[in-house]
Amino acid sequence: MRSGVEESVHHGSVAVVGSDGRLLASAGDPGTVAFARSASKPFQAIASLSLMGKDPGEDLSDREVAVMCGSHHGEPDHLDAVRALLERADLGPEALRCPPGLPLDPEAALAVTERRREYHNCSGKHAGMLLACVRAGLDTGSYPQEGHPVQDKVLEVLSQGTGMKPLAVGIDGCGVPVHAFPLSALGAMFARLSRPGALGPFEHPARRAVRAMLAEPGMVSGSRGLDTALMRTIPRTVAKGGAEALQCTVMLEEGVAVAVKIADGGYRAAGPAVIRALQVMGLIQPAHAEALVDHARPAVSGGGRRVGELVADFDLERPG
Description:
The protein is an alpha+beta fold. Helices cover 36% and strands 17% of the residues. A hairpin with a 5-residue loop joins strand 4 and strand 5 (177-182). The chain is globular, with a radius of gyration of 19 Å.
């Protein structure tokens, strides 16, 4: 809405799923197929941790594990955590196979003069994969390739979480395989983080990943990021978004996840949609919604001032 006029509309779908995989409510088409993109990072981190031997990840700091799960914004503490993972592997940034990038955080971006691999928002995930390779005695040069043991383990974790094989496998923006699932299956995967035993052999690394994300939400996106805001505001919540406006959020105590996909890939609509769904389901308190207002109703600016806002306007249907 700009100056009282509806200026544009985003369409999308929502799937609300319980930890048993049951669809609780939806809007649009919960069967919409989407690549998991960066929403899969916690599960890619679980795969990497699972290759690190006994008690995986217990020798790593929460910041190091959380940045493996996140799409960091290139802020100083994010880069420190990425470099710490690489140092544990006795490798430098040149070992990363993600493309050189710039920090997503505007202030951090202004402070650099060139694109570097460690600045890429996926470098934490890649550093974790490299550390897994070193500790498991695997080749470090080919870790992004489909069929590498790290990527095979990722596929195992995703299949365990969603309860199905991917409908398609592509290449993500950072160069590793990316997997397509129905939106409801992605919701089920996140909901199962609330009872990690449902992830079978990956229970321990799943618990470690969740613990780290809860302890260091600022490492999951950035000081201005939606994931970080949701996790800092709503107790016992894990959130992770992905490119093309996919957003997955699980309320751990309730065992309920909300998965949102905006059809046109407009990420600005993801925050309003997920917060609206959480409100409709009664999963958050009014105080939480108020604290998240900058993400629930992002400002539309004109002349440097607020002249409108994005508004999520939909209801949820419940099966039966």
